[in-house]
Amino acid sequence: AGAAGAATFGAAFLEDFFADFFFAVFFFFATFFLATFFLEDFFADFFLATLRFAVFFLEDFFADFFFDTLRLELFLLELFFDFLRAATYPPYGVELLPIFSHYSKRINQSVPSFFAIF
Predict the structure, then answer these.
(1) Which of 72, 57, 82 is nearest to 109 (CA)?
(2) How many Å separate Cα 62 from the centre of its chain?
(3) What pTM value is reported for the model?
């Protein structure tokens, strides 16, 4: 009777223990997976929204930067060819002074707009 009672008590104890253990593990994993799906959806939306904002922001920034840089490069290219023309055609170098005065006025107007992006 004692052994049977001990076995019954042990079986009931272990059954209760493993039932609690099983439910604890089950609820842990259920909570974990629910949280994972929730956070996955949340961070996917957050990531895509952030990426979309960054693309629009950087697209606008680099478009402005690109066009201002292109404007400056075309200005420098035009300046280079004006100097080349003035230095290679007669009367050699006489036209340099008007070029300096012309471009000094243009530089004052164009350079601040170039640096306005910063």
Answers:
(1) 72
(2) 13
(3) 0.32
* Residue 79 CB neighbour total at 10 angstroms: 16
**Structural domain that includes position 93:** 2-115
| pLDDT beyond 70 at 107 | no
∠ at Cα 90 (88, 93), nearest 5°?
A: 65
Block residue for tokens 């104890």: 13
The per-residue DSSP string of 63-97 comes to: HHHHHHHHHHHHHHHHHHHHHHHHHHSSSTTTTHH
By C-alpha distance, which of 64, 72, 65, 57 is closest to 111? 72
Q: What are φ and ψ of residue 77, in 5° steps?
A: -65, -45
Total domain count, the chain: 1
Asked if residues 99 and 86 have their Cβ atoms less than 8 Å apart, the reply is yes
Hey, what amino acid is at 82?
D
Mean residue pLDDT of the chain comes to: 68
The amino acid sitting at 46 is F
Report the chain's terminal Cα–Cα distance, integer Å: 91
